[in-house]
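PROTEIN DATA CARD
Card holder: DUF1232 domain-containing protein
Chain length: 208
Origin: Alicyclobacillus mengziensis
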Amino acid sequence: MSNKMERKEPNQLEDTVKSVLKKRSMSLRTLGKRTGIDVASISRMLSGKQKANPDYLQRMAVELGVPSDELFRAAGFDVGRATSADSIDFVRELLNGQRFSKQAIELELTKYEDYARTNEGVNLIVEKFPEKRQQVPGTGPFLDQLDQMFIDFLKSNSDEERSILGSGLLYFVLSTDVIPDYIFPIGYIDDALAIQIARDRFSRFSAR
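Structure generated from the sequence above:
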């Protein structure tokens, strides 16, 4: 199973989205408003006049209440089979390869610690985290930790604590993921690991 999704014809996105909109008694204008996507852009994407944007598809799937892979397939992306076995094999492939490792994530977090000490880094977290967070559907330990980390970041008066917490939040916000976020929930595996690493470091620092 490849982690790079390839687009293939035909595009059945228009029929799929319009069918779901009808079931939800939702207009295209409402969908545009809820997703923050210009209605004209959605229309062009549905008609095939504009290339399907993975980020837009993910946002639309959340608001329409359908699995994201359903829209990706309708748009002509080859996402493979959406089964647990595929997900497990995909994760194993990544974990056994050079593209995805705890060490690589720790290195990125170290870089982000310095950025989190700057006013630019702090402003980026404060402004962009709520927006990115809304794009993640569902509930669970990862999201609970993520939300708590943001709260702790805002409350902390320690530069060291804020740099540690900020590194994890920046990893999430800046989408440096090895696995694309729009392959949910697989796409948030390295985000979850980054958040856990940062939380563990924060706990050790706070216990000093």
